[in-house]
Write a structure and sequence with these properties.
The complex is a heterotrimer of chains A (131), B (502) and C (443). Chain A is of the alpha+beta class. Helix content of chain A is 21%, strand content 34%. In chain A, strand 6 and strand 7 form a beta hairpin. Classes of the chains: A alpha+beta (131), B alpha/beta (502), C alpha/beta (443).
Chain lengths: 131, 502, 443
């Protein structure tokens, strides 16, 4: 099995998004495993700044040549920034999913709940990758 | 014949024209100055007839086609396209009649349409056929709209779900969604049938219908089709038959006899109207009497030897202009009339014989997803022993080097690394044997010299193409700078063009 | 055995042995016995010569536009088709190929579609065109659905009554399950400008046609501006031949532009197969339904073409796809590509000019006839409305005797016009044909 990066300081969701909470805002992206499973990313569709989503809502789409994957917001919140650089260079999600490949920043509308820590998420990945 | 042919725009030269047009020949009327086009038709090329014909002939030679060789695309039924069909569709009374002419002036065309409706109804066991839908996907759309109209007409307005097996073609769920239904996926059982337990768990008062391809996209005849239909009907739902695989069962079984209420026919598959590089098709539909009032219109009817068009009373409406892809009707009609009942059955017998022959000659090397007698196609898996880095894509590309069009790959999506092979009845045993030999050699190469597969194809007009680059920076129309950007040092220079600023 | 089958008796025996069944019938054991091998009640098969005779008989029972003068249009047009078009279409390499799923051996189809997209984008002056739809009407309906998706929560569609009645019917059929309201075409006397005033913040799109169903040309620029000001999309339906001379969708600021492509080198064929031209702005590109071909390079750096942006499509996105469309009208798109290339810049303008001039000559001559009145007011392209002294069906019969296929009877679609006939004149109608029509109308 390939080694996927799973930074310890982030929170994860089973649907392969990560979340970095800073006060009442959070940055959201997709995990190294997710970018790897999708393959070469060719397009990222992001919401408008100001849009609000509930926990578990799809807020955008990440596309490779042969697949399109909805991305879900793990917590309720309002979009305060989107990573506009990805519109021109979506491949950054492949090369740097946790830093320059972030997708959106949100203002949290509630307490994040039901998220996984790095160790728990690694187990999810190990299970899926062995299928 | 692999020479590069530039985009037609680079062959343009000022003042050339490829058509000989008449003079206006009448007194001139002034043009309305404020409504004119202002760009001098920028971007449209100027070429002589010679150049245009040569350009398209040259690029045509960069295509593989049925007349070149075996084209075993699963679920597409790439059989031989008889030549008389092409002559027939171009007869003056077919190709050069206007769709809005009075019915009395097109009795021959209406008669042909009426007869084809009747022939298709008889072959499939339905009561009424409508030929209007332009393609399979539009036939599906017609069917699901009819289901909706039927339920609503009976005051049954709680049915908002359509069931689709997970092996279904993508058009099935996409169609249901386009009609406004929620799609519920049904699992496949270990023998490749609809999973009855899962079906029973998901069917109910919200079920508008089930969309089933039978034989299904695994190439298998559903062993429980009667029971599937009974479960759906007991819940008040309707049975939609996707006729994509009808080529397996002509004269073998009629969908109308095994519980389907509605189906579409792909005239471009089963009845061999040519695929034309991706259309035109014809997705005619047939149904039982109780659904006929909802069919799209017009339909052709006969009264005292006079043929005319009519639209059913509760019709879902019109799905395209006029009566449908009439040119396809002529071809399909010709095919059925020349074959008759025995000829049709022979088609399916040979289609199924050919597919099973491939199955037994390849299943020791290529896992068969569900290894039992298949219908007209067989689904293998590109998982070769001793070749972990070889994928279905590599096998497909290597087949090109052996002179075969690859089968359908990565569909159905419910089977990993699927290779879906539909040889059709028109292939000879000699060709099937050559295909088998190629597949077996590829399996050997996968272990011994995998680079042959990874690098394939090497004998085609171009090598593997950069699909990622194409999707990241889409170039969807001719733009000299963009094309030159792709070609790098091979780019067309100004002095190679008659109009360098083009 | 049929002459399309290449398996001998001996082959069959060997194959059955390899499969391990004793007869072909046994391959179908899985089919419930009570319904297996039905007797099909079909006519006896015909040999090729017999079939050809039967087809000629059926063909001869139709009045064609080659031996009759045709003044019928209304959405399908009798234009000149250079012989080179069909000569290319009859190449097996094109017509017996399928969708270019394996780009390495489908460069012919892919390059021709790329050129088609380029030509249509240039002709309509739009940013991008897809690989085609079934016909103009379905392109229009899919354009409206695309507008619903692109504008999200807007569920109203405003359509002008001068849009082809069958297009409006298809629009309604396509959207019947989507919970949308379609307004604007209730009263045929309302002008495009008046209808545009119905566009509000609940409106997804406004649909207008120019030249419209009755042949009239409209300046749609002010209308498009009004629609945009309300945050809705403007969809324009047009005729590709008219674009040789008149305002293009790009010029007026259309977001989505559609057209029936049949006039571009495709025979009338009693209504199909035709071609749906579909185009849009760059901004809407990723919401566009249908297939798209893009340019790219191969491993050796050679220019090549592939199907691209496929994640919009049903085979990947399934129930979330932008449309269920799969088959396009490949061969018809090729016809339009060859036709447009043959005519080119000069030819396209010339055809439009001949149509315009001859139609205006015909209108002038007809309006001189007692009892006949040309009621189209304002500029028109190659169709115009004639009010007749008698029901059009009666006139049509008289014309039939003179080997003339008369104009379209508007009685059903636009009864408010009285005994009205929509007359179409193209470059296929010579001055002599027109004079003969005028004489026959005179009676």
């Amino acid at each position: 099995m390939a080694d996927y990066k799973t930074p310890q300081d982030l929170l994860y969701v089973k649907s392969h998004e990560w979340l970095k909470v800073e006060g009442d805002t959070a940055t959201v992206g997709i995990s190294d495993y997710a970018q790897h499973a999708l393959g070469d990313i060719v397009f990222v569709e992001l919401p408008d700044v100001g849009a609000s989503f509930g926990a578990g809502d799809a807020f955008g789409v990440v596309e490779s040549v042969k697949a399109a994957s909805d991305i879900y917001l793990p917590v309720a919140g309002e979009v305060i920034a989107i990573n506009e650089a990805l519109l021109d260079t979506p491949e950054t999600v492949n090369s740097d999913p946790y830093e320059n490949g972030w997708l959106v920043k949100i203002k949290l509308a509630g307490e994040p709940a039901g998220l996984l820590d790095a160790a728990a998420y690694e187990k999810v990945v190990a299970e899926e990758a062995s299928k | 014949m692999h020479t590069y042919e530039p985009p037609i725009f680079e062959l343009s030269g000022a003042g050339k024209i490829g058509a000989w047009l008449p003079e206006t020949g009448v007194p001139e009327t002034a043009l309305p100055a404020d409504l004119l086009r202002t760009d001098d038709l920028a971007g449209l090329p100027e070429l002589s007839e010679t150049e245009v014909v040569r350009h398209f002939t040259r690029i045509s030679q960069r295509n593989f086609c049925i007349d070149t060789g075996m084209y075993p695309l699963g679920s597409c039924t790439m059989k031989y396209n008889p030549k008389i069909h092409e002559d027939a569709a171009r007869m003056p009374g077919f190709a050069f009649i206007h769709p809005l002419q009075e019915d009395t002036s097109v009795q021959g065309a209406l008669r042909l349409t009426y007869d084809l409706q009747a022939l298709l109804a008889e072959i499939s066991g339905f009561d009424q056929v409508c030929l209007q839908p332009a393609a399979g996907a539009q036939g599906e759309f017609a069917g699901i709209l009819v289901f909706r109209a039927y339920h609503l007409d009976r005051g049954d307005d709680q049915r908002d779900e359509v069931l689709c097996p997970n092996s279904a073609h993508g058009t099935n769920p996409a169609t249901a969604a386009m009609v406004g239904f929620k799609v519920v996926e049904i699992a496949t059982d270990p023998r490749g049938n609809v999973d009855l337990a899962d079906l029973r768990a998901k069917v109910g008062p919200r079920t508008a219908g089930l969309m089933l391809t039978n034989p299904n996209t695994l190439g298998l005849f559903d062993e429980n089709v009667h029971e599937v239909a009974a479960i759906v009907h007991d819940a008040g739902g309707l049975m939609y038959g996707d006729g994509a695989n009808f080529n397996a069962i002509l004269g073998i079984v009629r969908p109308g006899d095994v519980g389907f209420d509605f189906m579409h026919y792909n005239l471009h598959k089963t009845f061999t109207t040519p695929h034309g590089g991706g259309g035109p098709g014809c997705g005619a539909v047939g149904c039982k009497t109780f659904l006929a009032p909802y069919l799209p219109g017009p339909i052709v009817v006969e009264n005292d030897d006079q043929y005319s068009s009519f639209t059913p009373e509760k019709s879902i409406g019109r799905l395209k202009t006029f009566k449908g892809n009439f040119g396809m009707f002529v071809r399909a009609y010709t095919y059925i009339r020349m074959l008759g009942a025995a000829g049709l059955r022979e088609i399916s017998e040979n289609a199924v014989l050919n597919a099973n022959y491939l199955r037994v000659k390849l299943h020791d090397l290529y896992p068969v997803a569900y290894d039992r007698t298949c219908m007209h196609e067989v689904v293998l898996q590109g998982k070769l022993k001793g070749a972990p880095d070889i994928h279905t894509l590599d096998i497909a590309k290597r087949l090109i080097d052996f002179g075969f069009h690859p089968p359908t790959v990565y569909f159905p999506i419910s089977v990993a690394e699927s290779i879906m092979i539909e040889p059709t009845e028109t292939e000879s045993k000699r060709n099937l044997d050559a295909f088998i030999a190629a597949m077996r050699q590829i399996a050997r190469e996968a272990v011994e010299s995998p680079e042959l597969l990874h690098n394939a194809p090497t004998t085609a007009p171009v090598r593997r193409l950069d699909e990622v680059g194409a999707a990241r920076k889409p170039i969807l129309k001719y733009d000299r700078a963009a094309i030159n950007g792709l070609r790098g040092d091979k780019a067309t220079t100004d002095d190679q063009l008659e109009q360098p600023t083009y | 055995m049929s002459h399309y089958i290449s398996i001998t008796e001996r082959d069959r025996t060997e194959m059955l042995k390899a499969i391990g069944v004793e007869s072909v019938d046994r391959l179908f054991d899985v089919v419930p016995a009570e319904v297996r091998f039905p007797t099909l009640n079909l006519p006896a098969p015909l040999s090729e010569a017999e079939m050809a005779r039967e087809l000629r008989r059926l063909s001869a029972a139709n009045a064609d536009v080659l031996t009759n003068s045709c003044f019928l249009g209304a959405g399908a047009y009798n234009h000149f088709i250079p012989a080179a078009v069909d000569s290319i279409l009859r190449r097996s390499e094109f017509y017996t190929a399928y969708t270019p799923y394996q780009p390495e051996i489908a460069q012919g189809t892919l390059q021709s579609i790329f050129e088609y997209q380029s030509l249509m984008a240039a002709l309509l002056q739009m940013d991008a065109a897809n690989a085609s739809h079934y016909d103009g009407a379905t392109a229009l309906a899919e354009g409206a659905i695309m507008a619903l998706t692109a504008t999200r929560n807007r569920r109203k569609i405003v359509v002008a009554p001068s849009v082809h009645p069958q297009y409006r019917a298809v629009l309604r059929a396509y959207t019947q399950g989507l919970g949308v309201t379609i307004v604007g075409d209730e009263d045929p006397n309302t002008s495009v400008e008046e209808i545009a005033a119905l566009v509000d913040d609940k409106t997804a799109c406004f649909i207008a046609q120019s030249p419209d169903f009755l042949g009239t040309l409209h300046d749609l620029k002010p209308v498009a501006d009004k629609v945009h000001a309300a945050g809705a999309l403007f969809i324009m339906a047009t005729n590709p031949i008219a674009l040789g001379l008149f305002q293009t969708p790009g010029q007026v600021g259309a977001d989505i532009a559609v057209a029936e492509g049949q006039p571009l080198g495709i025979p009338l064929s009693y209504g199909g197969p035709y071609l749906g031209i579909f185009s849009c702005t760059e901004k809407l590109l990723r919401k566009m339904p249908g297939r798209l071909v893009g340019a790219t390079t191969d491993l050796n750096g050679e220019l090549g073409y592939v199907l691209t942006l496929q994640t919009r499509e049903q085979h990947i996105r399934r129930e979330k796809a932008t449309s269920n469309i799969c088959t396009n009208q490949g061969l018809m798109a090729l016809a339009a590509t060859v036709y447009t290339s043959l005519l080119g810049k000069t030819g396209l303008r010339k055809v439009a000019e001949i149509c315009y001039q001859r139609a205006h000559y015909a209108a002038a001559e007809i309006s001189k006839l007692a009892g006949f009145e040309v009621v189209t007011n304002g500029p028109f392209f190659h169709e115009f409305v004639v009010r007749c002294p008698r029901p059009v069906t009666e006139i049509a019969m008289a014309l039939e005797f003179a080997s003339i296929i008369g104009g379209y009877d508007l009685a059903q679609d636009y009864p408010h016009l009285g005994h009205a006939m929509l007359v179409c004149v193209t470059e296929m109608n010579t001055k002599e044909d027109i004079d003969r029509l005028v004489a026959a109308l005179k009676g």
